[in-house]
Amino acid sequence: MIQDQIQGHLTQISQLNEAIDRNHLPHALLFVGPESIGKQKVAWALAQRLLCENNIENLKPQACGLCPSCMRVTKQQSENVMLIKPDGQNIKIDQAREIIQFLSLGNFGRNRIIIIDQAHLMNPQAANAILKILEEPAEQVYFILIAPEAEAVMSTIRSRSQVIRFSALSIDELKSLKPGLSEWIYKCSRGQLAAVSSLSDEDGTSKRLQSFELLEAFWTDAEFLMKQGHPWRTAVKDREEAQSLVKSWILIMRDVLVFKMGQSDKILNIDQIEKIKTLAFLENSKINAFVSQLFKIEKEIQGYMDSILLIESLWVQHARLD
């Protein structure tokens, strides 16, 4: 069964099971927390329990995992579950209409579950269409919305949903899922499975090392902006690559602060301690201001602002030698 495949999140699963046991499961749930920690897997496990043919009365705390309904949910082929995720950059109104059509079909006494992944990316038209459904919830219909943070979802949808907060996976949980990797990979992943996979492959390792080189150049190369062929321009040309670089810089600068505080045992990039030392000349106040700006840029890149212009502005504000 799907629940047996989940690492961590015992509190959240127990909360959901208790709500089912008491027949108090809300018709709209909002799962929030870091990416790639298993929120969608929990959503599928919940759908499996709600549809299990051998647990119709929900007397057991989990699905059987063996009946035809459970098997279809495991394969994500259940006719009673709809998964919605972004089509390109957004979740669009046509996808919301597909949900309305899905709910218009007879359910023959069965629950129906709509899982909306990346719910914060619903465009206004789609969000308003979903809101209308949530305002008058039908019996035996359950929405599970998934987003990185509750505040990113339209407030009126958020107010009609019960928020379930998920935390990043622990290092031990990551090791159980992805054993045998270097310690720095588990630490730098910050509890996210996708990050573990990215950091452990050859391309991810190469890009991580490049991020150290580019950050050092950012702070020490007076010609950082002037060199048209500088590697940083290529590194941030793609939006996802730019976000990855910014996230890496945030972790590196965090480690620089930790090193300066004399807490080397808490450094995440433990294999790159010498490179971290090269940035220890920066004042703490400058590091804090820089990291705050990086967090802002990360969201601006997600909002499709020009990543090259953002890095240029960042350098002018924080690193230009007057």
How would you describe this structure to a colleague?
The chain has 322 residues and is of the alpha/beta class. The protein has 2 domains: 2-167, Rossmann fold; 201-318, Up-down Bundle (Zinc Finger, Delta Prime, domain 3), CATH 1.20.272. The protein is 51% helix and 8% strand. It is built from 15 helices and 5 strands. It has a 5-stranded parallel β-sheet with strand order 2-3-4-1-5, sandwiched between helices. The longest helix is centred in the C-terminal third of the chain and has 22 residues, at 239-260. The radius of gyration is 23 Å and the shape is elongated. It starts with 9 loop residues before the first helix and ends with a helix. The model has no long low-confidence stretch (mean pLDDT 91).
What would a concise description of this structure say?
51% of the residues lie in helices and 8% in strands. With 322 residues, the protein is an alpha/beta fold. It is elongated, with a radius of gyration of 23 Å.
Features:
alpha/beta; single chain; 5-stranded parallel β-sheet; 322 residues; Rossmann fold; elongated; 2 domains; Zinc Finger, Delta Prime, domain 3
Reconstruct the topology from this structure:
Blueprint (H helix, E strand, L loop, with lengths): L9 H12 L6 E5 L6 H13 L16 H7 L6 E4 L8 H12 L7 E5 L7 H12 L5 E7 L7 H5 L2 E4 L5 H7 L5 H6 L4 H8 L1 H19 L10 H5 L3 H22 L12 H5 L6 H19 L4 H12 L4
Parallel strand pairs: 1-4, 1-5, 2-3, 3-4
